[in-house]
Design goal:
heterodimer, A: alpha/beta, B: mainly alpha, Histone, subunit A, two-stranded antiparallel ribbon, 3 helices, 4% strand, flat
Chain lengths: 466, 94
């Protein structure tokens, strides 16, 4: 869809300004109904459209892009959906955003997320934000934490992609709940410069799109080495959009432990049907055990993620940007006051957990231990990738739950819902959500591949969604 | 390890959070449940395992020591209400 549109824009066969005005009117209306945006960047979109109308250029010419709130866009309020960043208009854009802008993209807004990425249902939005509603059933969750990005992608009737960010599953999870493609790339594939950090050793920016081709085109634009992010990779960026439409001989490992009793029947049945399809198309399918991953992934992930988050969130103190007050009291009093008033409940919970895990006396038992378990998990994957090109499991154990069900869950139950996605995130492996339509809510099939093998996942998505 | 209200209050203070009594009451049993679940990692013998700070090994990343144009002071100060003489003004330290 993007490819044809870009051709038309470059040939000046589209009135980009008129189209942008129409799209802005549509997204404003959708936002009223589904609460997907934290901010709509009307002025920026129009100025980009006008510049493009005069001089159409770029691989993303005239493509509309929604950006997760935690990814900075210059001069557009970017809050990671947290009240503590109220009023913050970054004086720079994230590299991923800048790359898209330079290729002619039109940025239409910042999408709502769980505050700083702390959640899997987008119900942990910051104070004062509305919880987004699932486009397919308003009584259900859009998933999280890149929930707004997935929801607007499902809703968009115009050429569009969204940027999401994943720390423990925050791209594939909402993509699964909303029935769209979500691709979390290899750690370091896309620069993290300009991302409002959750956990630096885990954060990845990636595209959410209606189809595999659009996701591939977006990944091509946002990938690559960036001197502003020392963890970004110098690995060459392949032409992802040359999708292979053949799975003959593809070595597929089905993760045995990902089909346990806590996985719903509709999820199991839908995935199994797709596996049968792959077999018929000539893929070599086997079952593989990733026991340690499924069993120890959650505690290892939550210890590391909260530890890193608690240090990252230490910088929010009401002095340099975001929420602020009159400078009164000692610095401890002032900082504590601002932080206590402006962080939401889950942010406080994770700060306390992470601070605890790094406290002397507990550090070895939690933080250091979790980093060692991370090594064990990475090795388990490495062994599996000696035999397989792609590993398959459901993305989430269930389809999108109702808000009434979510409100009954304890914090630990919330964390446990990430059981299938934390593994590839701990190991920095690329993973994709491939949507499967059902007569009710969509099911998500997750493919995981080895480092820098995003191409395999995109081809798999192309085959399974046709 | 004993997770009680006293511990939660002390950790919160370290993290510069003032929790209300009701927050402490809510968080304490929740954290107890979560941390006891985290102890599951004790089942694994990691005595001979190296730790992974990153998912993909990152070696020393160095750049040439060369003066370059970067973020201006004006831009860095553009988001604060507490600017004085080109610096951030903070609350009293002592």
């Amino acid at each position: 869809m993007i490819e044809e549109h870009v051709k038309l824009v470059l040939a000046k066969k589209v009135d980009v300004v008129k189209l942008t005005k129409e799209v802005l009117a549509i997204v404003k209306k959708l936002d009223k109904e589904y609460k997907v945006y934290a901010e709509i960047s009307e002025d920026l979109a129009l100025s980009q459209a006008r510049a493009l109308a005069k001089n159409p250029k770029g691989r993303f010419a005239g493509v509309f892009v929604s950006v997760k709130d935690g990814i900075c866009v210059e001069d557009v309020q970017s809050r990671a959906s947290s009240k503590i960043l109220e009023g913050y208009k970054p004086p720079f854009s994230a590299t991923a955003v800048q790359n898209l802008i330079e290729e002619g993209a039109i940025i239409i807004g910042k999408t709502v997320q769980d505050e700083f990425g702390f959640g899997g249902f987008c119900t942990n939005v910051g104070l004062g934000f509305d919880i987004p509603l699932n486009p397919l059933d308003k009584t259900r969750s859009v998933g999280g934490s890149s929930g707004g990005s997935a929801a607007i992608t499902a809703l968009a009737s115009f050429p569009h992609i969204a940027l999401g960010e994943s720390t423990g599953g925050s791209i594939v999870n909402p993509a699964s709940f909303c029935g769209v493609i979500g691709l979390c790339p290899t750690y370091g594939r896309v620069s993290r410069y300009g991302l409002i950090d959750y956990a630096n050793s885990l954060d990845k920016i990636g595209p959410i799109a209606k189809n595999a081709k659009d996701a591939a085109l977006a990944l091509e634009v946002i990938s690559g080495y960036d001197k502003k992010d020392s963890t970004s990779s110098k690995e060459k960026v392949p032409i992802y959009s040359n999708l292979k439409k053949d799975v003959t001989g593809l070595r597929v490992g089905i993760i045995k432990e990902a089909f346990g009793d806590d996985v719903s029947k509709v999820v199991k049945d839908s995935i199994n049907k797709k596996i049968d399809e792959l077999k018929k198309l000539g893929a070599k399918v086997e079952v593989v055990s990733l026991k340690k991953n499924i069993e120890y992934g959650i505690p290892a992930y939550y210890i590391l993620a909260t530890s890193e988050a608690s240090t990252n969130l230490a910088k929010y103190c009401g002095m340099r940007y975001g929420a602020t007050e009159k400078l009164e009291g000692s610095f401890n009093e002032y900082f504590s006051n601002i932080r206590s008033k402006n962080f939401g409940e889950e942010a406080k919970r994770r700060i306390i957990l992470g601070t605890f895990a790094r406290t002397s006396g507990y550090r070895d038992a939690y933080y250091i231990k979790a980093m060692k378990v991370r090594t064990i998990i990475i090795e388990e994957y490495k062994k599996a990738f000696e035999k397989y090109d792609v590993l398959i499991s459901p993305t989430t154990p269930m389809t999108s739950p109702k808000f009434s069900e979510i409100s009954k869950m304890t914090p630990l139950q919330h964390y446990m819902a990430d059981v299938l996605t934390v593994g590839p995130n701990l190991a920095g492996l690329p993973h994709i959500n491939i949507p499967i339509k059902t007569k009710d809510m969509p099911v998500g099939l997750m493919g995981i591949s080895n480092h820098f093998e995003e191409g395999v996942l995109l081809s798999l998505a192309e085959v399974l969604t046709k | 390890m004993k997770v009680d209200e006293k511990l939660v209050r002390s950790i919160a203070e370290t993290a510069r959070l003032k929790l209300s009594d009701s927050e402490v009451k809510k968080f304490t049993p929740e954290l107890k449940e979560i941390l006891s679940y985290f102890s599951k990692l004790d089942e694994l013998d990691t005595s001979k395992v190296k730790l992974s700070l990153q998912p993909v090994e990152v070696r020393n990343v160095l750049r040439e020591d060369k003066v370059e144009e970067c973020f201006t002071q004006k831009k860095a100060l553009s988001q604060t209400k507490h600017e004085k003489d080109g610096y951030f003004k903070g609350p009293k330290a002592i």
